Amino acid sequence: MMAGAAEDLRALFGTAVREALEAWPALQIAVDNGFGGVHSQEKAEWLGGAVEEYFFRNADLELDEVEDFLGELMMNEFDTVVEDGSLPQVSQQLQTMFHHFQRGDRAALKEMASLITQRKCKVRATAQPTARETDEDDDANSVEEMEVAATNDGAATNDGAATDGVCPQPEPSGPDSQTIKEEDIVEDGWTIVRRKK
């Protein structure tokens, strides 16, 4: 491979990595809410280069190694533990892109980056105070829930049909999914945790 073509392919891989990370809702929420401090945006940009460099320095990475590396970066830089199931998905995307890079498959790498860009959702998380209000100090007793809404940038789907502007929301994990009932919140703000049956 010629030096110019190799540099172009490396730049394409770097762009694809950044697209995958920018499309990752967990990272979007961490950046938008300043979980990484006042420099959250700069940390997110740095993260793309760090992930790219990690792949170049470790050519034979296993999926769990990539997953561990991303999880560690999210914890160290954004004080965020990713538990939404997206970490293995993003790790797999990145690993697949790197395999395309290693094979010199420019078309597959471009296609993968394009698909990620088309599916990119804008995620927003807002704190929602619950209806429970008392006469006591609101700050000490307020209970907040996070509401996450995802919207698509109006991209077309693979079959050419336009989306309705909304990305699919994750479904609860079934009848055993934990919900907090009003009677489980006692007056001092603690929540009673009940064992699954």
Q: Characteristics of this structure?
A:
single chain; 197 residues; mainly alpha; two-stranded antiparallel sheet; 7 helices; 2 strands; 9% strand
List the helices and strands and how they pair.
Elements: H1 3-22, H2 25-32, H3 40-57, H4 63-78, H5 86-103, H6 106-119, E1 121-129, H7 138-141, E2 144-152
Antiparallel strand pairs: 1-2
Helix pairs in contact: 1-3, 1-5, 1-6, 2-3, 3-4, 4-5
Helical segment count: 7
Approximate shape = elongated
Q: What string gives the helices and strands in order?
A: HHHHHHEHE
Low-confidence stretches: 132-145, 153-166, 168-178
Oligomer: single chain
- In which order are the strands of the major sheet placed? 1-2
Q: What fraction of residues sit in β-strands?
A: 5-15%
